[in-house]
Amino acid sequence: MDIVKRIRLNPLERRDQLIELGMTMLSLRGLEQISVEDIAKKAGISRGLLFHYFASKRDFHLAIVQHASDELLERTAPDPSLTEPAEILRDAMRRYLEYVEDNRESYISFMRGPASTDPEMRAIFDSNRAEIARRTIAHLPIPPHVSAARTDLAVRGWIAFIEEATVSWLKDPQITRDELIDMNVQALPTLTLSPGLAAALLD
Amino acid sequence: MDIVKRIRLNPLERRDQLIELGMTMLSLRGLEQISVEDIAKKAGISRGLLFHYFASKRDFHLAIVQHASDELLERTAPDPSLTEPAEILRDAMRRYLEYVEDNRESYISFMRGPASTDPEMRAIFDSNRAEIARRTIAHLPIPPHVSAARTDLAVRGWIAFIEEATVSWLKDPQITRDELIDMNVQALPTLTLSPGLAAALLD
C-alpha cells in the first residue's frame, strides 16, 4: 500500500513528511525523475497543497538535496568514543559507504547528473564537502613543514578521489567493499603527507 | 582587426578554421558563451554557411570539445626521449598544467559547467580520461600483489584528484605551480601503491 494514511499534520510535520517521501523516492531514482504529482499522491494531499510548502518544484528539489546532505553529515559524524585518527577515519569511511549504498541512485545522480553543475545545488554539495574537509583536517596529524594551503588542496582532491572511486565502484564493483574502504582511507595520509597516520592505517 | 581575411577555403579547411576560432574564443570564456553568430562574423562567412559545416550549434560545440580533447592529449603525450617513469610523469604533468593555464576558462567550464554532465560531452571527456589513464598505467611500475582492478580505480581517482586540485588552484592559487606539480605527481604512486616510483619522485 503506497498511500500514506491521511492524518492531520501540522505544517512543519507535513513539510518533513514530503521531504522524507522525496528522500525515499530519491533512493530509487535520480533527482530529475522525482515528480511532484507522485509525491503529493503518496502523501495523500493535492499538488496545490504541496506548493503551499515549497514555492516551486525546484525549491522542493533543493530541500530534498539539503536534507540528503544533512543526513550524510549526520550519519558520518566522527564517533566521539574513538580516539585514534586512523580508527576515526576508517569508521567514518565505513559509514560513508553504508550511506552511499543505501542511496546509490541519488548519490550517482548528485555526482554525475545535472544537479552536480546547477549553481544552487552545487552550493549545497560544496558546503557538504567543506564540512567533510573540516572534519578530516581536524583529525589529521600534519607534519609542521607542510603548509595549510597544500593540506587544504590535498584534502579537496582526496574528496574528489573518493567520490570518483565510489561512483565507479557502484557502477562496476570490481573490488570488495573492504578493499575500497582501505584504498580510500590509505589515500588520505599519503596525499596529505602524514606518514604517522599512514603507518597506523597499515597496521 | 578581428575579421579573418576573406579567402577561399576548401570545405575541410573552412571547418578547421571555424573550430580554431571556437577554440580561441573558448580560451577566453566558457562553452555556453560561444555564439555561432560571433564565430561566423570572425570567419567572414554567414551564419547559414556555418550551419553548412555543422548540423547545429550543439554539433559545433561538440566538435570544439572533441578538438580541445585531442589537443590536450597531443600536448601531454609522453616524451619518447625520456625513459624513467618519474621523469615521464613529471614532464607530462608540467605540460598538462601549461595546457590548462593556456585554456583556463574552457578547462573550468568543461570541469564545472553544464558540459560536464551533458551525456555526449561527457562521453568525450571520459574517453579523454580513459586515454590519460591508459598512458599512466603503461608507465606505472605496479607491485605484483596489487590487482589490476584496484590500480584502475586508483588511477581514475587520481585523475579526479588532479582535476579537483587544478580547478581549485586556478580559482585561488595558494601554492606555486611547482608545488601543485609535485603534489599531483607524488599522489600517483602513493595511490597506486608503487613505492619504487614514489621514491624516484622524491629524489
TrEMBL record, chains A, B:
Cross-referenced InterPro entries: DesT_TetR_C (IPR054129), Homeodomain-like_sf (IPR009057), HTH-type_Tx_Regulator (IPR050624), HTH_TetR (IPR001647), Tet_transcr_reg_TetR-rel_C_sf (IPR036271)
PANTHER family recorded: ACREF/ENVCD OPERON REPRESSOR-RELATED, ACREF_ENVCD OPERON REPRESSOR-RELATED
DNA-binding region(s), residue ranges: 35-54
Taxonomic lineage: Bacteria, Bacillati, Actinomycetota, Actinomycetes, Mycobacteriales
Gene Ontology molecular functions: DNA binding
Keywords of this entry: DNA-binding, Transcription, Transcription regulation
Name this protein carries in UniProt: TetR/AcrR family transcriptional regulator
SUPFAM superfamilies: Homeodomain-like (SSF46689), Tetracyclin repressor-like, C-terminal domain (SSF48498)
Domain HTH tetR-type: residue ranges: 12-72
